[in-house]
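Report of the visiting student (M.T.), summer placement. My assignment was to run the structure pipeline on a short list of targets and document each run. The first record concerns Flagellar biosynthesis anti-sigma factor FlgM.
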Amino acid sequence: MRIESYHKINKLYTSDKTSGVKQNTVSSKNDKLEISQTALDYQIAKKAVSEIEDVREELVSKVKNKIDSKNYNVTADEFASKVIDSYNKLMF
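After the run finished, the structure tokens were exported:
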């Protein structure tokens, strides 16, 4: 009987003992965050827009009063002109 073979095989199975825990040393890095000037300008503009009222109550109430009193007359040419002007402002 070959005892040497048995010892080699036994040695393979017994060598699976856990060794000590290895600690990884990681050097700490300093993170740096830079915000572009464009992003800062965008943030300021967004804040300014959020502080403005969505609806101009004075203008709405004037138009409502004119409509109620049937004094609100707008021609098709005036309306079309305003629509085109608004479109041009958005596109250019």
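DSSP finds four helices and no strands in the chain. The CA atoms of residues 44 and 50 lie 10 Å apart. I thank the supervising group for their guidance throughout the placement.
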